[in-house]
Amino acid sequence: MVCARSAGVLYLIIIACGIAGEVFVRGGLVVEGDAAATAARILGAQGQFRIGFVLDALMLLSDVAIAVLFYVLLKPVSATLALMAAAFRLTQAAILGMNLLNYYAALLVLGGTVEAAALGSDQQQALASLFLDLHRHGYDLGLLFFGCSSMILGSLVVRSPRFPALLGYGLIAAGVVYLAGSFIRFAWPEFATSFEPVYGVSLVAELSFCLWLLFRGVRNVPSGEPSARAVRA
Known about the structure:
Layout: H1 2-29, H2 35-44, H3 46-74, H4 79-110, H5 121-159, H6 165-187, H7 192-195, H8 199-215
Helix pairs in contact: 1-3, 1-8, 2-5, 3-4, 4-5, 5-6, 6-8
């Protein structure tokens, strides 16, 4: 039960930091298609921009910890699949961790480092905009691995008698959305914006699982009962 509640707390941190960083920090600073306006906003709110880095870092640290907790919770269902889900999630965390360098590089360029001082203001703004664009694409690259992790995690939850199967199906749907959104970003970028509302499915599914972990934990399974449900093909 402690493991489940701890996972719920970490999941809430991940969701809260992810939304806050994307919506309230970057959403208020990045002006799509306008490098000059974006640069002006970042330079005028450097503290806010740095908070975006902190929020993402907290999210990723929590992601590493929750990968271990989910492995412990779902290992009785299938140790192999639980380990695979953890591996995909940790790979995502590593990619997004390195991707934070792209995010911070935008501030280094605009902040007047020795190297950036050799560039004109227009070049600095264009380079900063490129780093932010790389950061956005890096997120989608990481979500490819997170989508796989979510689908495997969902299948384990469906099979586990400790959780409602509906939560697992929701996580599987979330994983499909993440995979589809990432492939669209790289293969068909013209449809990326129109696909964004579909991420609401992932938010509902993950928030539902998070709240279940926080307030219900895991169901008690009587001794001797199988550790996994029989799932029909």
